[in-house]
Amino acid sequence: MNKKYIIVALILLLAISFAVAKSRKITCSGSTTVLPIAQATAEAYMDKHPDVNISIRGGGSGVGIAALQNGSADIANSSRVMKAKEVSQAKSKGINPTPYAVALDGIAIVVHKSNSVANLSIAQIRDIYNGKIKNWSEVGGPKLPIVVISRDVASGTFEVFNEKALGGSKVVSSAQLLASNNAVASTVGSTPGGIGYIGLGYLTEEIKTVKVNSITPNTKTVQDGSYPLARKLYMYTNGKAKGDLGSYIAFIQSDAGQKIVVEQGFIALK
Amino acid sequence: MALMLVLTALFLVLFLVRMFSQGAKVLSWDFLFTAPRDAMRAGGIYPALVGTFLLTALSMVVALPLGILTAIWLTNYGRPVWLVNILRVAINTLAGTPSIIFGLFGMAMFSNLLGFDISLLSGGLTLAILALPVIINNTEQAIRSVPEDFREASLALGATTRQTVSRVLLPTALPSILTGAIISIGRVAGETAPIMFTAATFYSRQLPKGLGDEVMALPYHIYALMTEGTHPTEQVPIAYGTSLVLLLLVISISAAAIWIRSSIRRKRQW
Amino acid sequence: MKTFKEKSFQTITYTAALFTVACLLGIIFGLFREGLPIFKHVGLKEFLFTNNWYPTHAEPGFGALALIVGSLVVTLGSLIIAIPLGLGAAIFLSEMAGPRLREITKPVIELLAGIPSVVYGLFGMAFLAPLVREWFDLDTGLNVFTASLILGVMIVPVICSMGEDALSSVPKNLREASLALGATRAETIFKAVIPAAKNGLAGSVLMGFGRAIGETMVVLMVAGGAARIPSSIFDPVRPLTSTIAAEMGETVMGDLHYQSLFALAIILFLITFVSNLITESMLLKRGKK
In chain A, which residues touch C (CB < 8 A)? Predict the structure, then answer.
């Protein structure tokens, strides 16, 4: 008796889902750095276009790129450029990754606000993350062991940091691998000996940036490229972005969209 | 010994107090029935509530008929015997398998191989497989606890196996089966790992319109806010609030099941 | 003479059973199919016994030792907490508590068992970890210690309810005989009842083990995420489950990293499978008393 009801319910459920007209939707996935930009611009776009639904997931740039390759997302948010290997892998699956720059960012090296260190060279950063320098006193700071905080493998921020600051070397195994910019920011903020790296939009009151090679990350140094860890933030689509997708990305790249980018703490493209 | 019980109870109290005090701060009608706004700093969790409901409903629509029918076969037919043995091994093994393995399998099978992508369908099917062993065991136990005299009397009166099952065994076992189903619902609603990469999304303004849409879900929302959230000061309380809603949901489901079970036991005359 | 209705009912249920078996076995089959290929690339010994987990590096490393040790350490820690609490509560409920207390506590314990793991994870991450960090003056509260605490409390209901079942199924006359021989209540409990229930009690502990080692959300949020072999209980670790969950979304179907995660899942599956087998045999032995 109950089985009959269940079967009827199942049929109804299926019927409803196929009867409803195809919804206009955009699915985004990937970088946690790009996440606040994606979310804020999505909300603004949906306010103007109420019949389009944009759904956003995080997970890290790697997750977004994988989703694009698997065909399960329309936009891959990425805080790094796709690797050649990833591009060819995508092409072999019939996906043509096309990058659209949506913002500029500087990867900020952050320490706890009580830490007196104000400047680190790239070489020092590398040695800290490789585990060669173990105490803040070795770089002019207090006598405090360094707690290395990093990101996990899916992170685009990690990839860019690895490339530009570490030169591809391995992070010491005692480093904590966290899942997002926010996790890094809050962990460094509660760890007096901590060091981490985050997108500029994630600065909090508990942490402070150090200069890298004596250059402070700000709008000017990122836009003219003098900050060593400057980078572009991207959205990748399959082929050229058309229709709703194209309209959304165009919105982000427009003045209105760039205003939102700056509001979220990042840097406009121009 | 009593100390042990007291300690456990103490922890429970501490836990609940913390949850309620932090979570109640954000609870409101708005919280339950509107979508997130303003980069997730305000607004509510309505899409997540709906998403959890839909995922759970879909998984039950698939798992309940399948599980109940299988249990009926086990208790009333049961030939060939090799199938019974394999079935038992499979059920017992999978009842004890970690939920992340189901999630991994669901991602590989439903999202990737069968091409359902990240969708309500993938998540619902994954959860259904997760719930299946428990439902089968529970239904089987319920049917077996119907006194043998009932079945023998029915058969003696000339009823067929099918009639015995549908008119005697099932109705008698129904309350216990129902209890088990309700407990499964509670379990499925709270699962995160199986839906992390098969169905769940961080942010979506509109409700899912079809089986192929991504959904927000309560447990994933808590996880995402805590690990990927972009504005922790506002979002940690929202995570607590979501937890509170999920807790209340699960507790009331369990309480309903326990109440049904004890009222059966009281009414039962055998 | 079976009529059509009879036959079709039988067929329907038979099909359901077949379908169930297919699903369940499909998972096991799928796990092995996707995971075994990695061993063409990495030797089994290297996978299990070296500590070199760098799956996305230019030259990928697939040594999972730290991950396996991480799982074992956190599970052990949780058992250290859960066994005294769980068994203690079970002994109290079964042997010392009055029926009223038992009636109130059993549903409460079931309730505790139903709390979703992500909520425990939130509690650990937002509340307990900062506390631990302050109390012990550590760098971070996300470590083996905190994870074991939360995980331990999570499995107390499992150990308690199964343990209580085991104890209460010890026949009454055993207790009565012991008391009649002049033993005290305490002596009866510890020297007669508990040894009689030892298989069931061991089963309950193993059940807790299985549950703890398979737990994902709590360790993902609370254990810290450093893929290294911990040198103290205040070190962060990265168990098998967190690794799979954290890296799952990042893999593309079929590549090495994907296969390595399935291989981790195989290891996890085998551990819980063996643990379940032992539990079952313990419970069977108990039945034979």
Answer: 59-60, 62-63, 66-67, 69-70, 86, 89, 145, 147, 152-154, 168, 170, 173-179, 187, 190-194
Residue B157 structure tokens: 């009166």
Question: pTM of the entire structure?
Answer: 0.87
Residues of A in contact with B113 (CB under 8 A): none
- For C115-136, the pLDDT digits (tens) are 899 999 999 888 888 888 888 8
Express the helix, strand and coil content of chain C in percent, nearest 5 each: 75, 5, 20
C-alpha to C-alpha distances, B181 to B54, B130, C17, nearest whole angstrom: 16, 13, 18
The ipTM estimated for the assembled molecules is: 0.88
* More confident: C284 or B94: B94
Shortest Cα–Cα distance, B20 to chain A (Å): 24
- Do you find a cis peptide bond into B80, omega within 30 degrees of 0? yes
CA distances from C102 to A161, C91, C161 (A): 58, 11, 11
**B23: number of Cβ within 10 Å:** 24
In sequence order, what are the residues at sequence separation of 6 or more whose Cβ sits closer than 8 angstroms to the Cβ of residue C25? B86, B90
* Average pLDDT by stretches of 10, chain A with 270 residues: 61 56 78 89 90 88 88 90 89 90 91 90 92 90 90 85 88 84 84 88 87 88 88 92 90 92 87
Contact with chain B for residue C17, Cβ under 8 A: yes
C139: which chain A residues are within 8 Å (Cβ-Cβ)? 145, 147, 191-194
